């Protein structure tokens, strides 16, 4: 390969966005993917494909839609999601950290990046199934999240790959990059194993887009703590932290919160990793994130989070950690039949784990690993504490709360009184890690002195300093696309 061409390591959405952007600027691009063709696409293929971005009205959304003539649009209220609101949502999860340059760039470039994807044959659909409730005959979108890629995460990656190949990109599978090559402080290529055979590829520009370290049990223990050895990995088994290792070996500085991660409640009986062999529409089905319409009990039979703290977009990426830290890394999500229609489709798949009973007294005896006496007392106290005057309204934070409990539920507190009752066992799952390499808004990788490492760029989960102590749902794919596009443009510009 000519040294004036660009190498991209990884093949998820961020990598493909980087590839499309590089090709758009006239560069030649080769993508090296560790997995085989069946497993390409990184974590992106396991997502629901939702992308969070700032918009002022439906006028910003309509040009992005695959089907702008959908009859439901006439009775849909998308509201708005301003830059100010997006920044406020990020700041909420920063704790003491002020909004960073990377976060500001993410917000500012979110809508332009979605529009750019649209110009490259990537289309979107309103998230009617998971982000709306019907109220007064209208579909009300909630939580600042309105559109998903057609075909969810799998459809997003497949469409991006098709575009990457259409405009001249090349992808090679079974290529496990081992080392970044440098000379006089500048990137000169990579060393990799192709089907076990050691090879070298020359290039003056490399974009590292091969994910975080969530699939590496040893690194999870090192950075997140011992309990994370027990976490289920929601996505790919290939994100072992190799990109971070290679980048730091050539002087990259680290950035962000290495003790933080996107962690979701998952089916307790799921396999250790996600599964690409099931249809894409079911790949998210191990997640169990409708807890806000019920209660969660730990092995002691006690509640341990405010299930109604906020819309699930703002809590699900944190509550997985809360579950994982319970005794036996276990919790049970309990619902009555009043809310059955509100539960996401993953609660209704053929292999979803649950128990069922006609009374709470019977249900608690079926909760494996749970103190039944305390569980029943907790549920009875919960029922007795609910404000019955405030109406239940899933389209807003309705303030229908409990009163007088050691841990109150602040919204969507319904009495559990309508059989059959169902309980779903969950544990903590990890989606991606927050710590990464330090980059600027041009996606150039920086050294400890803040200088750009010539020819080295990063995007996707490799980037640290975008998320710290939490995550508003849908921001991850958007961040990958924003910094992927930036990396592709910057690498092409660097090569001239």
From TrEMBL:
<dbReference type="InterPro" id="IPR050315">
    <property type="entry name" value="FAD-oxidoreductase_2"/>
</dbReference>
<keyword id="KW-0274">FAD</keyword>
<feature type="domain" description="FAD-dependent oxidoreductase 2 FAD-binding">
    <location>
        <begin position="6"/>
        <end position="475"/>
    </location>
</feature>
<dbReference type="InterPro" id="IPR027477">
    <property type="entry name" value="Succ_DH/fumarate_Rdtase_cat_sf"/>
</dbReference>
<keyword id="KW-0285">Flavoprotein</keyword>
<keyword id="KW-0560">Oxidoreductase</keyword>
<dbReference type="InterPro" id="IPR036188">
    <property type="entry name" value="FAD/NAD-bd_sf"/>
</dbReference>
<dbReference type="GO" id="GO:0016491">
    <property type="term" value="F:oxidoreductase activity"/>
</dbReference>
<dbReference type="Pfam" id="PF00890">
    <property type="entry name" value="FAD_binding_2"/>
</dbReference>
<protein>
    <submittedName>
        <fullName>Tricarballylate dehydrogenase</fullName>
    </submittedName>
</protein>
<dbReference type="InterPro" id="IPR003953">
    <property type="entry name" value="FAD-dep_OxRdtase_2_FAD-bd"/>
</dbReference>
């Amino acid at each position: 390969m000519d040294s004036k061409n660009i190498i991209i390591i990884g093949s998820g959405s961020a990598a493909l966005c980087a590839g499309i952007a590089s090709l758009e600027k006239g560069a030649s691009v080769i993508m090296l993917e560790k997995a085989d063709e069946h497993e390409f696409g990184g974590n992106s293929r396991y997502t629901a494909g939702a992308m969070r971005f700032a918009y002022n009205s439906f006028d910003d959304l309509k040009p992005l839609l695959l089907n702008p003539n959908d009859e439901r649009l006439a009775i849909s209220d998308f509201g708005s999601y301003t830059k100010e609101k997006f920044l406020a949502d990020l700041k909420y999860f920063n704790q003491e950290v002020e909004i960073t340059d990377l976060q500001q760039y993410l917000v500012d470039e979110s809508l332009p990046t979605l529009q750019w994807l649209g110009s490259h044959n990537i289309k979107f659909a309103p998230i009617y199934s998971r982000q709306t409730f019907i109220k007064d005959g209208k579909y009300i979108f909630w939580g600042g999240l309105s559109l998903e890629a057609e075909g969810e995460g799998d459809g997003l990656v497949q469409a991006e790959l098709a575009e990457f190949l259409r405009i001249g990109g090349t992808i090679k599978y079974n290529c496990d990059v081992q080392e970044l090559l440098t000379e006089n402080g500048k990137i000169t290529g990579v060393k990799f194993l192709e089907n076990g055979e050691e090879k070298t590829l020359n290039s003056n520009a490399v974009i590292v887009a091969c994910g975080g370290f969530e699939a590496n049990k040893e690194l999870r223990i090192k950075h997140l703590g011992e309990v994370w050895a027990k976490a289920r990995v929601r996505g790919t088994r290939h994100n072992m932290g190799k990109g971070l290792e290679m980048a730091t070996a050539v002087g990259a500085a680290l950035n962000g919160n290495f003790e933080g991660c996107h962690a979701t409640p998952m089916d307790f009986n799921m396999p250790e990793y996600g599964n690409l062999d099931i249809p894409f529409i079911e790949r998210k089905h191990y997640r169990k994130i409708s807890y806000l319409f019920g209660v969660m009990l730990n092995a002691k039979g006690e509640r341990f989070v405010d299930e109604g703290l906020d819309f699930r977009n703002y809590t699900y990426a944190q509550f997985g950690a809360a579950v994982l830290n319970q005794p036996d890394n276990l919790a049970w999500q309990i619902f009555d039949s009043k809310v059955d229609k509100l539960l996401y489709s993953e609660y209704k798949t053929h292999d979803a784990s649950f128990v069922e009973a006609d009374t709470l007294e019977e249900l608690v005896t079926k909760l494996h690993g749970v103190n039944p006496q305390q569980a029943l007392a907790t549920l009875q106290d919960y029922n007795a504490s609910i404000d019955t005057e405030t109406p239940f309204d899933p389209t807003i934070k309705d303030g229908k709360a409990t009163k007088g409990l050691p841990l109150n539920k602040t919204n969507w507190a319904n009495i559990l009184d309508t059989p059959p009752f169902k309980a779903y066992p969950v544990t903590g799952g990890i989606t991606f890690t927050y710590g990464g390499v330090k980059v600027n808004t041009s996606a150039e990788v920086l050294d400890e002195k803040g200088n750009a490492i010539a020819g080295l760029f990063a995007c996707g989960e490799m980037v640290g300093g975008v998320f710290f102590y939490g995550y508003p749902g849908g921001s991850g794919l958007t961040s990958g696309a924003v910094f992927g596009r930036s990396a592709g443009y910057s690498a092409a510009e660097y090569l001239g």
